[in-house]
Predict the 3D structure of the following.
Amino acid sequence: MTRTHDFLVVGGGIAGLSYALKAARVGRVGLLAKRALDESNTRWAQGGIAAVWDPRDSFEAHIRDTRVAGADLNRSEAVEVCVREGPDRIRELIALGVRFTPADDGDGFHLTREGGHSERRVLHFDDSTGAEVQRALVAAVRAEPRIEVFERHLAVDLITERKVARFRAKRALGIRGGEAQALLGPGGPEAWPAARQDRCLGAYALDVRDERVVAFQAGVTMLATGGAGKVYLYTTNPDIASGDGMAMAFRAGATLGNMEFVQFHPTCLYHPEAGNFLISEAVRGEGGVLRLPGSGEAFMARHDPRRDLAPRDVVARAIDHEMKTRGLECVHLDIAHVPADVVVRRFPTIHARCLELGIDITREPIPVVPAAHYFCGGVATDLSGRTDILSLYAAGEVACTGLHGANRLASNSLLEAAVFADRAAREAEAALGAARSKAPVEIPPWDEGDSVPSDEGVVVLHNWDEIRRLMWNYVGIVRTDRRLARARRRVEMLKEEIEEYYWNFRITSDLVELRNLATVADLVIRCAQARRESRGLHLNLDCPGADDARWLRDTTLRRAW
Ligand SMILES: Cc1cc2nc3c(=O)[nH]c(=O)nc-3n(C[C@H](O)[C@H](O)[C@H](O)COP(=O)(O)OP(=O)(O)OC[C@H]3O[C@@H](n4cnc5c(N)ncnc54)[C@H](O)[C@@H]3O)c2cc1C
């Protein structure tokens, strides 16, 4: 079956929803979300959205803070437009019905100051900003008759002219499957979207309810699939974050950049039933102390003079070091010495969630581990969200605009998604016009070939676990050449096995996500191996220190055809 729209939006977080609303002014939109529409990273954002809002703040200060966090690898133009256009995007969200916590004196909004920001500039809705943004955007999208929402539709692969031609040629020869190798180049502006040879025609998507694949054809496709935290054993991200958009774009031939820069949050609850539950950094701000299990030693003093109040990355590295050298499963975060009423009043959600799991944080320490939190890299785009495949755009965490450089400044990601989705939407009319001027291409239906239903679900489960574990152990917070080489060998073997499985058995959502996870793991490792220095979030003990002379540039990857 083929469905046709003017715009296809893959993803229903802040980037996809806000783009869809604007594209709908120009044409009919089909929007895919692989689970329910309210399941996204956006929904879980706690802190808020950064923007210059206070008259005492300035664009220059926000730009400077963003560059300092990004270890100067940021793309200047991306930082400029994001910071300067940020306040207007916030005003639009407010106009859509997004609520922000008012200031204590009732005049304007309350602004928080987060790590790395020199001013108070984070607008928030208590500690559930993302849920509020998601609520308002979903309501607006559902009320827009020109947007057709397809929940539980998992995009499997992008359809491009080149792929259609290859498919036809292969079918004539009776060949199926096969994924080519990656080409890695140390990037630089010249490696960013330039060579526009192919054109995106839409995507194949698996209707998860009946496991049938539908072809979605569109003049313009927007990838807004979010990040890839699930590549790691421990992550703050919800289950949707399996890097599908990054993997699909790579398979289609788009350029990806800076995949080595993965941000880890220092404290995620460690409990078999907890799923992904973040223990806010504010717990340390209120006096929480990190301790070794058993001895109870407060270990941060050995790592940084600021002890438990050291920046996020320093704390994450310290915990990682203690866990890896001592073979620990977790460390403890202890706030039991703070009066119980203060703890309960200040952290009602954390207190209640831990209590549900049998941990009374007013009396005992919280077991925590660092966890993969945010991908700074992704599908390379220009300032209008264009990728290097014609008619294919990307926005939000899936994209690499260059805003974050080597490390993300807190609360800049919701901002980036809103700003670049808007910039892409400004091009919607022209992009649709350009697509309509091209000769129409008939999209072949999904080819199941001789594939049969799988009776080896254990293979998917095992490989899923192995990838996430090896990424955690070898490609985590602290890296070495040997660990990366070991990870690369294993991921290559796993990829081969998964590809074989993929082409022999009928696809399921688990199999599609596993394949994507393996691809993203491979891309992270390749970029990490290529960067012969330590910068921002990428710490390699075999090449410590930043090398500005040779490495003040992006790592970029593109599939070899
Ligand atoms: C716990 C937590 C706290 C955070 N706190 C903050 C914060 O305070 N401030 C901040 O700025 N950022 C924060 N972030 C980061 C921020 O939430 C994300 O970067 C941002 O929400 C990403 O938005 P997005 O629209 O790109 O993707 P998402 O919101 O992740 O949405 C992705 C969408 O794509 C869909 N999708 C994915 N793959 C497919 C597929 N194959 N087919 C169909 N649909 C697909 C998903 O179903 C989902 O609808 C936080 C993240 C987490 C996890």
Observations:
- Residues 391 and 434 are 8 Å apart (CA to CA).
- DSSP finds 17 helices and 19 strands in the chain.
